[in-house]
Design a protein that fits this description.
The termini are far apart. Helix content is 46%, strand content 14%. It has 206 residues and is an alpha+beta fold.
């Protein structure tokens, strides 16, 4: 009987210590254990969007770069789109068609081999090739408001050699169809349309 009493007391003591340890967590904010380091960021982001401190174009630019590769690369002295470039442009086109409110600019770049004048022309050919491919994939031509060559002026890697990383185009969001007022619900309409479009009908087995 004495042995059973001692086992019971030891068990109760252990339970009590565990309870104290758990109770201490109530002195912190709810969800602290689930915080990945961005606690409060979604609320801050929404507040800034609603107050106009950040624009819808900025928000969508962050999304575009997070969800889609914005850059395609080219072979030396070429504006031809290889299979990898075409695959990236299919992803870009799919994303762009979901947001007809947005407008885009395509920038063409080259490496430092060749004259500045020739590289301006080559950068333009590359940007034009990307624009034509996006339009062929169903992106409205009016959505692309500019096709610009930056030639050799903005290399990612500064070298006079044949650097593949510098032979590229970059697609950027330039703005909206019109100057949107965030409080008119436009952002909500975009998100709702994207949500509805992504829904798929589930068929139950017969």
């Amino acid at each position: 009987m004495a042995l059973k009493r001692r086992i019971f007391l030891l068990g109760a003591l252990g339970f009590g210590l565990a309870a104290c340890s758990e109770t201490s967590s109530f002195h912190r904010e709810a969800g602290a254990r689930l915080d990945e380091g961005g606690f409060g960021n979604p609320t801050m982001h929404n507040s800034m969007l609603q107050s106009g401190q950040i624009s819808l174009a900025e928000v969508m630019t962050h999304r575009f770069h997070a969800e889609v590769p914005s850059m395609v690369n080219f072979a030396f002295d070429s504006a031809a789109l290889d299979q990898e470039a075409q695959a990236i442009l299919r992803m870009q086109a799919h994303w762009m068609k979901q947001f007809p409110e947005l407008r885009y600019t395509i920038y063409g770049h080259t490496d430092l081999v060749g004259s500045a004048a020739y590289n301006r022309q080559l950068g333009q050919r590359r940007a034009n090739a990307v624009m034509r491919q996006l339009v062929a994939l169903g992106v409205p031509r009016r959505s692309i408001i500019a096709v610009v060559s930056r030639g050799e002026t903005q290399p990612l890697i500064v070298t006079s050699g044949k650097e593949p990383a510098n032979r590229r185009t970059v697609t950027e969001i330039s703005g909206l169809v019109r100057r949107a007022q965030i409080l008119d619900g436009q952002y909500a309409r975009i998100i709702r349309r994207e949500y509805v479009a992504s829904a798929t009908e589930q068929h139950r087995p017969e």
